[in-house]
Amino acid sequence: MKTPSMRFTSLAVIALAAGLSTTAQAQNAADATDSATARQKVAMCIGCHGITGYQASFPEVHKVPKISGQNAKYIAAALTAYRKGERKHPTMKGIAASMSDQDIADVAAFYEASGKDIPSPAAPAAPATPTADIQALLTKGNCMACHGADMNKPIDASYPKIAGQHADYLYVALKAYQTERNPQIGRANAIMGPQAKLFTHTELKQLATYVASLPGELKTVPQPKLRR
Ligand code: HEC
Ligand code: HEC
């Protein structure tokens, strides 16, 4: 057992190594874990999620999603869905399969706090008005009712922030909610499945491009000091 003071010291070290600010939120995230395990747990992720613009090639070339600044509850829900096989993406399924509930809680808290000290792009005074075509798609899917008026404040923390996420990733994710009976591609989700199925691929691409253009809090935060 570590003494409280040793524990505090090692947490301060992680917060520094991770480039986290010393805000209460960052401290809470660091609190979720201790030095050795934090390094180990996030070291598994930064090779992909910590490299700006990193490309994945399956099922088509797209950028790895930004997860820094995402809601912890959503990150935990997503990792649990990969672990259960409800999300079939083979790489993430393999990674999540090796994670305990505690690992999932720790990395989710870490990534929610990560990047809070880096300014988000300023929201324009007047939000970008969608074209009439895009507006019709948004209305049909009622996207804002769940993801929030700005797509950055979902009505429930287990729902994702999507504003400013990579367009090519959003498109792949939306198509995955439509895909059934494929062993390697698909996301079985009772909420987003019916939404995605309302649209053609062309429409999903238009929605993805629009959502990606909105200012949001999601980021890729390189963590070179944690590598090694
Ligand atoms: C080999 C590259 C790679 C590694 C390593 C990796 N990921 Fe991923 N991750 C991806 C890709 C690609 C996706 C998109 C999968 C999909 O389409 O469902 C993804 C998706 C995710 C998502 C879902 C994001 C969303 O918006 O729904 C979360 C959460 C996530 N990863 C967390 C992690 C964590 C935590 C680790 C470390 C324990 C990790 N990943 C390691 C490549 C990686
Ligand atoms: C009834 C609530 C609801 C509505 C309406 C809704 N969503 Fe979602 N959305 C969710 C939930 C919940 C998830 C998380 C599902 C999961 O865990 O895989 C999600 C996930 C997503 C994702 C995956 C994000 C990621 O990081 O992988 C995208 C993209 C998305 N929604 C876009 C949309 C768009 C575009 C619309 C409108 C056409 C829409 N959603 C309408 C609730 C909703």
SSE layout and pairings?
Layout: H1 4-17, H2 24-31, H3 35-49, E1 55-56, E2 62-63, H4 72-84, H5 90-97, H6 101-113, H7 132-141, H8 143-147, H9 167-178, H10 192-196, H11 201-213
Antiparallel strand pairs: 1-2
Helix pairs in contact: 1-2, 2-6, 4-5, 4-6, 9-11
The structure holds heme C (HEC) (2 copies).
The site of one heme C (HEC) has 21 residues, from helix 3, helix 4, helix 5 and helix 9.
Report what the structure shows:
- By secondary structure, this protein is mainly alpha-helical.
- The protein has one domain (8-119, 126-226).
- It is built from 11 helices and 2 strands.
- It has helices at residues 4-17, 24-31, 35-49, 72-84, 90-97, 101-113, 132-141, 143-147, 167-178, 192-196, 201-213, and strands spanning 55-56, 62-63.
- Strands 1-2 form a two-stranded antiparallel sheet.
- Strand 1 and strand 2 form a beta hairpin.
- Helix 2 (24-31) runs antiparallel to helix 6 (101-113) and helix 4 packs antiparallel against helix 6 (101-113).
- The protein binds heme C (2 copies).
- One heme C is lined by residues 65, 77-78, 81, 141-143, 145-147, 159-160, 162, 165, 170, 173-174, 187, 189, 191-192, 195, 207, 211.
